């Protein structure tokens, strides 16, 4: 299980989504856009960062478990 690879992929995809959203906002400028931004995009980065931290903790835990089982 490669958790660090998955973490990197998640962070990369989040960056891609953020860039696409920035481009989209240049053309979509109504109240629905603001609602979408508030409801989803503003929540995305903090939640991804939180998930990345949890993945790091899991990776460390798995390393200790592997070491204990050797």
Structure in words:
The chain has 70 residues and is mainly alpha-helical. It has a domain at 32-70. The chain is built from two helices and no strands. The longest helix has 39 residues, at 31-69. The two termini are 17 Å apart. The mean pLDDT is 94.
Structure, briefly:
The protein has 70 residues and is mainly alpha-helical. The chain is built from two helices and no strands.
Number of helices: 2
* Count of DSSP strands: 0
As a whole number of angstroms, the C-alpha radius of gyration is 17 Å
Proportion of beta-strand residues: under 5%
The secondary-structure class comes to mainly alpha
Helix content: over 70%
Mean pLDDT: 94
- Which term fits the overall shape? elongated
SSE sequence, one letter per element? HH
Main sheet summary = none
List the helices and strands and how they pair.
Elements: H1 3-25, H2 31-69
Helix pairs in contact: 1-2
Features:
2 helices, 70 residues, 0% strand, 89% helix, mainly alpha
């Amino acid at each position: 299980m490669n958790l660090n690879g998955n973490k990197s992929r998640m962070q990369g995809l989040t960056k891609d989504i953020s860039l696409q959203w920035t481009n989209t906002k240049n053309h979509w400028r109504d109240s629905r856009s603001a609602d979408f931004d508030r409801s989803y995009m503003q929540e995305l980065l903090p939640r991804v960062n939180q998930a990345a931290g949890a993945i790091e903790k899991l990776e460390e835990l798995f390393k200790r478990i592997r070491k204990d089982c050797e």
